[in-house]
Amino acid sequence: MSTTGEVIRCRAAVAWEPGKPLSVEEVEVAPPKAHEVRIKVVATAVSSTDWAFLYKPGIETRVQPFPFILGCEAAGVVESVGPGVIKFLPGDRVIPLFLPQFGECDQCCSTKHNVCKKNWENREIGVLADGTSRISYNGQQIYQFMGISAFSQYTVVSDISLAKIRDDAPFDKVCLLGYAVSTGYSAARYTAKVKRGSLCAVIGLGAVGLAAIMGCKAAGATRIIGVDINSCKHEKAKELGATDVVNPNDHRESIQEVLHEMTNGGVDYAVVCVRKADDMTAALESTREGCGTCVITKGTETAMTIGVNDLLMGRTLKGAYFGGWKSVDCVPLLVEDYMNKKLKLDEFVTGNLSLYQINEALQLSKNEKSIRTVISLW
Ligand SMILES: NC(=O)c1ccc[n+]([C@@H]2O[C@H](COP(=O)([O-])OP(=O)(O)OC[C@H]3O[C@@H](n4cnc5c(N)ncnc54)[C@H](O)[C@@H]3O)[C@@H](O)[C@H]2O)c1
User: Fold this and answer.
1) How many other CB atoms are there within 10 angstroms of residue 155's CB atom?
2) Secondary structure (3-state) at 364
3) What is the pLDDT of residues 271-310, one digit of tens each?
4) In which order are the strands placed within the sheet that holds 8-14?
5) How many of the other CB atoms lie within 10 Å of CB of 159?
């Protein structure tokens, strides 16, 4: 029976208050408005970002209003489309994107960067382009998260925040391409532009860092050093392409000294996948004088100290939001790579749970052995 134009009642995990577990409720999801698409979410992964927005309010998280529905790494099927939507049809398989690609703004028309700011302010405060959310509970508005809210069986997203993918892509694997894996992989390949035969270091081996290792390997780096203070992550890093692994806590010297010693003068590329400013400085200093490039993939709440002489001596420091690649263009290509066995995703899935086990999955996102738990919504 068609649900087009109807309000859909479905299950969703609602964050009612900071610091409190999510509660699975029956919510109402309104039909999509102009340039919006309603999606049946089939699978969603749980990241440490979800955990942070619930349990660790900070500078980046404080504008998100409660109650809201978390989830930004997902895959699903288009249920219906609003007026003016021309790129999607009911039944299309899709991945929602926290970074839109409007296609007509200065940023989208530039080949130099990917940070499309369309609907940016609304996304930050939990609403869609018209200033409201499409999700409610007994008439009360439930805010959205990153323009998505994937911990719900149905959600509505802007049509510029959605990538159409091939029909045979498995939802429970390609959902990982909505956020961290695309970020890390693209940061290495498209922002650092790692060259064949180069020496690389990846600092922080969560999903972003492990994907950066894959990006370095795909680009033909001959040596890839994975760095993490949690040795449980080292085995997975080797599985995905690291040639060496280092735990900074095993050394008296600083990590930049260790990396300089291991590489006889520093790495060609360092991809930083941790949030602390001091680690970003260390990564920049671990690159080779004269030609080293350091790419930052995460925001930080404190100022980063940069030795001007490090830059003067020919090092380059870059930032990469969503890896630096345009979201709608990049994600279907990465799905192709996965389907053609050129990109690994199965290795990132360390657990599968149901929507009713969402709080367990959130706690697992902070577990030292876990990478991603995938939630099946149905
Ligand atoms: N820039 C973007 O577009 C973008 C996109 C996706 C995610 N992110 C960010 O990525 C984060 C989630 O990524 P994740 O899933 O990889 O994170 P995670 O928390 O799972 O992994 C971080 C890893 O870094 C390690 N680590 C911490 N401090 C370290 C240090 N000093 N030296 C070495 N290793 C250290 C931890 O042990 C852990 O393994 C979020 O913070 C989010 O903001 C950014």
Assistant:
1) 31
2) helix
3) 999 989 999 999 999 999 999 999 999 888 788 888 888 8
4) 8-14, 23-29, 135-137, 140-142
5) 22
Which residues does a 6 A CB cutoff place in the pocket of ligand 1?
47-49, 179-180, 183, 203-209, 227-230, 233, 248, 273-276, 279, 297-298, 321-322
Please give the number of the atom of ligand 1 that sits closest to the Cα of 320: 1
Confirm if 295 and 272 have CB atoms less than 8 A apart.
yes
Alpha-carbon gap, residue 83 to 86, rounded angstroms: 9
Nearest ligand 1 atom to the CA of 274 is 24
- Domains annotated on the chain, with CATH: 8-178+344-376 (3.90.180.10), 183-321 (3.40.50.720)
H or E stretch including 40?
Answer: strand 36-46
From the centroid of its chain, how far is CA 170?
Answer: 18
Instruction: Give the separation between CA 63 and CA 324, rounded to whole angstroms.
Output: 24
The answer to pTM > 0.70 is yes
Per-residue pLDDT band for 59 (boundaries 50, 70, 90) equals low
Shortest-distance Cα residue to atom 36 of ligand 1: 204
Percentage of residues in the chain with pLDDT exceeding 70? 98
Residue with tokens 């030795």: 307
Over the stretch 117-139, which tens digit does the pLDDT of each residue have? Answer: 999 999 999 999 999 999 999 99
